[in-house]
Every structure is written in C-alpha cells, then in structure tokens.
Amino acid sequence: MCLFTFMCFLLLLSCFYLIMANSNSSSSMQQPLCHDSESSALLQFKQSFLINEYASGDPSAYPKVATWKSHREEGEGSDCCSWDGVECDRETGHVIGLHLASSYLYGSINSSSTLFNLVHLRRLDLSDNHFNYSDATRKVIYRDITLVGVKKNCN
Questions:
Q1: From residue 70, how far is each of 17, 115, 120 by CA, in Å?
Q2: What's the confidence (pLDDT) of residue 152?
Q3: CA–CA separation, 63 and 68 (whole Å)
Q4: How far from the centroid of its chain's Cα atoms is residue 82's Cα?
Q5: Element (H or E) spanning 105, and its range?
C-alpha cells in the first residue's frame, strides 16, 4: 500500500511538473505586446479619418480601424499587435506593417500625421481608400517603406 501511494505521488508530481514546464515555455514564446507609443500613434491616425463606405470600391471592404480600441476602452488586455490590419515584429513588438486596403478611410494624410511616428514601419497598404488627393506619399517613400497602391487613393 505504501509503495502504491508513493507511485501515485510521483505520478502526480510528474504531471504537475509537465504542466508547469508547458506553461512557462508557452509564455516565453508569446509575441511581445505592442509598444504604447505605437498604439497611441495608431489610435491618433485612426481618429484623423472618417469611416465612409463610399471611400472604398471593393465589395469585400470593411472598416478595419473601427475595432481598434485604447486600453481604457477595452481594458488592460488591449494590444495593437492583435488589431485588424496591424502587423508587428514577433521579437520586438514594433509595428512593421499596416494593411488597411479597402478600409473605408476618408480624409487627408498630412506631413504631421502620426503615421510617420511608426519608425519601424516597413509595409504600408492604404489602397482603395479616399485621401483627398493627399501628397504625403513622398515622405513615406523616403523612409524605405514598401508601398502598395497609395497613389491610387483619390477615387
């Protein structure tokens, strides 16, 4: 009986060890959270536009930025790396891509846009939106960012 109890104890201890080891390895493999300054820049960028269904011609268009929420609006679990259209570096958590094609964005991008605060940004797709013939694309081009369809954003 004592040997049986000891074997059960070892089995239980082994299971506990495996559970703890698995939770530690999965937490260390999680992607880092978005940086607060980049989250704030994205929210300010969002606020600079109106959501207008006539700004995009694609039938599958939808307002990706409409789901972006601040920590105060959504609670402490908000992470801009999980926002629709936002791509982050898996190691650093920096925003490296914005994929906002056909997002019903209507407004202007001026040279002081918080978009330019995203210094790690490498890919930008703002195609099929209406930016009122904004001429801020030159500033983006000088930053070595891969642009997709930005010049066609005047509908």
A1: 38, 17, 21
A2: 45
A3: 10
A4: 5
A5: strand 105-106
